[in-house]
Amino acid sequence: MRKTILISILLFLGAMSAGAQQYDRGYETVPSSPFIKKGTWGIGGTARYSQHINDANSLLVISNINSTGYNVSVNPKVMYAIKDNMAVGLKFSYGRNMFDLASADLGVAGIEMNAADCYQIQHKYSAFGVFRAFIPFGNSKRVAMFADLHLGGSFKQGKAFNAGGDQVFGTYNQAYSIQLGVDPGFVAFLTDRLAVEMNIGVFGVNYQWENQIHNQVEYGSSDSASAGFMINLLSVGVGIAYYFL
Length: 245
Prior knowledge:
The structure is a single chain. By secondary structure, the chain is mainly beta. The protein has one domain (34-244): Porin (Beta Barrel), CATH 2.40.160. Helices cover 9% and strands 73% of the residues. The chain is built from one helix and eight strands; from the N terminus they run H-E-E-E-E-E-E-E-E. It has one helix spanning 2-22; strands spanning 41-59, 62-83, 86-108, 111-136, 143-162, 169-189, 194-214, 218-244. Strands 1-2-3-4-5-6-7-8 form an eight-stranded antiparallel barrel. Residues 15-23 have low confidence and may be disordered.
């Protein structure tokens, strides 16, 4: 009886072992040549500009909107492959936006309010160190996944004022932040050297502190911290990169 049980156990373990050998998740599959070779340089980035002009426009409960504004950002980066399919680099960012509200009326449930002569402008500098790991699809040399680990910080400076009443109220602020994040994405080569890249933030740790001066008399400050896994649709980025040896 014991011999029969022992033989049954051995046969069961043998079947499990055979099944496990047939199940290949592809972790040991190594392409014949790397997707990005050691010694490859990559340069690229994104640029964006937008503006708006509202002339007596209306939006939901807001009417008679008269405003102008713009938003511009430039995000260059440079990378170097220290090993096959592994690269390090730097990326920088500069953004500037302005909003000038001449007038707007708000009406909700018989309550009427208006705003006039509100102005805000600010700019932001950022710099990050980046480590990137490319994850090719088998032997494909055109499309691959990648994961970026970035660490760095930013500096933001701006001012806002309201001159719609008898007095002018203004606030000047400076903000600093330290960030750590993971951004996975895809890269697709259009030619042998030119590629399109898309990435999205899924994990981030951020600490920010800010100082304010109101009417050059009153001082204030604030700080905040956040961390977590989340898909940040606002961080989706699409850019162009050029790779060369």
